[in-house]
Design brief:
Layout: E1 11-15, H1 34-37, E2 42-47, H2 49-66, E3 69-75, H3 79-89, E4 95-99, H4 103-108, E5 112-113, H5 119-122, H6 127-133, E6 134-135, E7 138-139, E8 142-147, E9 150-154, H7 165-177, H8 196-206, E10 212-214, E11 220-225, H9 230-240, H10 259-264, E12 270-273, H11 278-284, E13 288-291, E14 305-314, H12 320-330, H13 334-343, H14 351-358, H15 362-371, E15 375-376, H16 384-398, H17 403-418
Parallel strand pairs: 2-3, 2-4, 14-15
Antiparallel strand pairs: 1-3, 4-14, 5-14, 6-7, 8-14, 9-12, 9-13, 10-11
């Protein structure tokens, strides 16, 4: 998960030498090819550190083919704010790598252009990834990975995947009574509240909760804020009952800084996390398996949030024609998608890349299975003001605050920010 934290932005500029061979786009110099109109110039790409390094050799090839110098700037943190600010100042990139739930804010600030896709092009991607980049009936950017949480388990301690939270609680309680674990579950809550909504959303949906209603086309309707509905209030209370004053399954002492180590050190048999936790789990040597998120007994299916990693074309870029060519015809290839996967393993959005990887990677199969019933993270701007109050309310309830009163206060806080 991408934690949105303020901080100093550091950049590393990699100037790519013009060398290498062309990709699979039109011949250089052909009519309509960008190099026919822009044989000189510069294409600037912003990405996080890992993906900047992964893109380097491909950007090098693209630069040669199009007669441009390509520069990659690796932005280490606070990428969305940095991009919007730079865009407004006229100092931003031509291409930006980021999360799909930025789209509402980026469109509102005039920072990105649509990247048109035919139906045939859309069919090359996992459907959820195309839904994720669709905003106001237009496609913004090119998806390259889909991410979500699932349930990790230590197969020595828990050989069978629980299908309900009640089963998991019974299993963990038994293991703790036998002295085999010290924690019932590794799921980040912590008092900052920042990780709680994302990691407990599957619980929330299983208990009947909703954040925003939807329009007829399936897009989120910001006018339908449903967290104050009886069903959502009851769902928050169901989660609160798993806190310190209830079963103790959820704890604020487990947060972003330590939840992975709680599992890899063998202190818990279960962990809720995404594919970003895989490197640490594999390094630990713990035998593990990954399964879909459990539901509550008698509850609805558990639907985790889905995030879509995306390549955007900047609306104020200085080389927009070449940026569109890069996004449309060069970036969405199997080789690029596999390289990005190898740099930071998340199930690819491009079907050809996903199928090639999943054929020999059961972990990616497991995350894709856990994503089947997931809900896309809302990309509407109203979601941005929802996360912080929601997370802090969850943390307070896990520590024993009255769930009904706390939820009502949370809803009033969010609605004041939504203007309603």
């Amino acid at each position: 998960m991408r934690i949105r934290a303020a901080g100093v932005v550091t950049t590393m500029t990699l100037t790519l030498l013009i060398a290498g061979c062309g990709g699979d786009t039109a011949e250089p110099g052909a009519a309509g090819h960008p190099s026919a109109q822009a044989a000189t110039g510069e294409l600037v790409i912003w990405a996080d550190d890992k993906r900047a390094a992964a893109l380097k050799p491909f950007a090098d090839k693209f630069g040669t083919e199009n007669g441009v110098t390509v520069k990659i700037q690796a932005i280490s943190k606070d990428q969305q704010t940095t991009f919007v600010t730079a865009s407004q100042q006229g100092s931003g990139p031509d291409v930006m790598v980021g999360a799909h739930d930025w789209i509402g804010n980026l469109v509102q600030n005039g920072a990105i252009d649509p990247v048109p896709m035919t139906d045939a092009k859309k069919a090359l991607f996992r459907p959820a990834s195309i839904q994720g980049i669709t905003f106001n009936s237009q496609t913004y950017g090119v998806p390259f990975a889909v991410e979500n949480v699932a349930l990790y388990r230590n197969t020595t301690l828990a050989p069978t995947a629980p299908t309900t939270w009640e089963e998991l609680l019974a299993s963990s309680t038994q293991l703790k009574s036998e002295g085999k674990v010290t924690e019932l579950l590794s799921l980040p809550i912590d008092t900052s509240g920042s990780p709680a909504p994302y990691h407990t959303y599957a619980m929330f949906t299983s208990a009947g909760g909703q954040v925003f209603g939807k329009n007829a086309d399936g897009s989120y309707d910001p006018k339908q804020f449903l967290m104050g509905s009886p069903a959502s209030v009851a769902a928050m209370a169901k989660i609160a009952a798993l806190g310190s004053s209830g079963s103790g399954l959820l704890k604020t002492s487990i947060g972003n800084s330590n939840y992975s180590s709680v599992f890899t050190d063998g202190k818990s048999a279960y962990m809720v996390a995404g594919p970003w936790a895989l490197p640490a789990v594999k390094k630990s040597g713990i035998p593990y398996a990954i399964s879909p998120m459990p539901k509550f007994e008698g509850g609805q299916e558990a639907r985790p949030f889905l995030g879509v990693q995306t390549l955007y074309v900047a609306s104020k870029g200085k080389n927009k024609a070449v940026a569109q060519e890069f996004a449309t015809n060069f970036f969405p290839t199997t080789d690029v998608a596999v390289a990005l996967f190898n740099a930071d393993p998340r199930p690819p959005a491009l079907l050809s890349a996903y199928e090639a990887i999943a054929a020999t990677d059961p972990d990616m199969q497991a995350f894709a299975a856990a994503a089947e019933n997931g809900d896309l993270m809302p990309s509407i701007t109203q979601m941005a003001v929802t996360f912080d109050p929601w997370g802090k309310a969850l943390a307070a309830m896990v520590e024993g605050a009255d769930p009904t009163t706390t939820t009502q206060q949370m809803v009033a806080n969010i609605q004041s920010k939504l203007g309603g």
